[in-house]
């Protein structure tokens, strides 16, 4: 790779800078800027950055057909703003309120990351009246199914076994919280571009024998169960 020309080469400059930055913290046992954390954070981005958006696009196609949202209205907006001769871009988004609203609805109904990311306190602290002991307390954000609402759940082990659990707060957002999803902008961009590009060129129809449903499987994300659609090129 080092000898090939191309814009990707700037990755080597960034990598050198990153190594220099991490070396600056060598020997500092209180710092989180070390190679292991860098590797884990990079892996986090790959894991969280692929499955989530792909699942949201699958929900979009499932929901459009299942709920019978007026796909024609989305396609009319695409034809008026983007047309058929060029690819969509993010500059089109503000002129496409209907498509944007449909995508918000997809994120709400799809509820792609319902269980949030578990968190631990790095030092003893207090949060909304709960004393969170270092490392032992686990907080997790849980999105309520199918609504723009999120509860934050805390689970604190107590002396003598067991755990004290409780509700911390309720907020309303698809990418919630202060420690919000760092991929939100990327996810919204990918979702918009792929969704618009797909509906610009195809109409998706469920074959008569295939019943679409809201059934899902739950792992890292909440995925629709496999379904079949026919992609009919638009004339
Ligand atoms: C439709 C797409 C996506 C949805 C619905 C989504 C949603 C979420 C949610 C609900 C959280 C938990 C926030 C919390 O616990 O308070 C989260 C965390 C996270 N997301 Fe996303 N996300 C999406 C796409 C992405 C993408 C594309 C990336 C990266 C490129 C990404 C990276 C992350 C990471 C690294 C975290 C953990 C943040 C932390 O530990 O503080 N996400 N996401």
From TrEMBL:
SUPFAM superfamilies: Cytochrome P450 (SSF48264)
Residues involved in heme binding: 181
The UniProt record lists the keyword Transmembrane helix: no
GO biological process, one term: organic acid metabolic process
Keywords of this entry: Heme, Iron, Metal-binding
Cofactors that this protein relies on: heme
UniProt xrefs under Gene3D superfamilies: Cytochrome P450
Name under which the protein is recorded: Uncharacterized protein
Species annotation: Ficedula albicollis (Collared flycatcher)
């Amino acid at each position: 790779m080092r000898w090939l020309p191309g814009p990707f080469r700037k990755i080597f400059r960034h990598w050198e800078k990153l190594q220099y930055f991490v070396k600056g913290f060598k020997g500092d046992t209180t710092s989180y800027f070390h190679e292991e954390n860098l590797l884990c954070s990079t892996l986090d981005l790959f894991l969280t950055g692929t499955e989530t958006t792909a699942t949201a696009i699958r929900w979009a196609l499932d929901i459009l057909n299942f709920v019978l949202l007026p796909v024609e209205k989305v396609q009319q907006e695409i034809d008026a703003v983007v047309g058929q001769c060029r690819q969509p871009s993010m500059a089109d988004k503000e002129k496409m309120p209907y498509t944007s609203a449909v995508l918000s609805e997809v994120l709400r109904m799809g509820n792609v990351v319902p269980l949030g990311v578990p968190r631990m306190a790095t030092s003893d602290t207090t949060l909304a009246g709960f004393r969170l002991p270092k490392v032992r307390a686990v907080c997790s954000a849980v999105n309520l199914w199918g609504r723009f609402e999120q509860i934050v759940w805390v689970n604190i082990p107590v002396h003598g076994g067991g755990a004290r659990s409780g509700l911390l707060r309720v907020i309303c957002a698809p990418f919630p919280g202060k420690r919000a999803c760092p991929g939100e902008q990327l996810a919204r961009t990918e979702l918009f571009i792929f969704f618009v590009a797909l509906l610009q060129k195809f109409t998706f129809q469920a074959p008569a024998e295939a019943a679409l449903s809201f059934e899902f499987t739950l792992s890292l994300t909440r995925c629709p169960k496999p379904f079949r659609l026919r992609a009919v090129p638009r004339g």
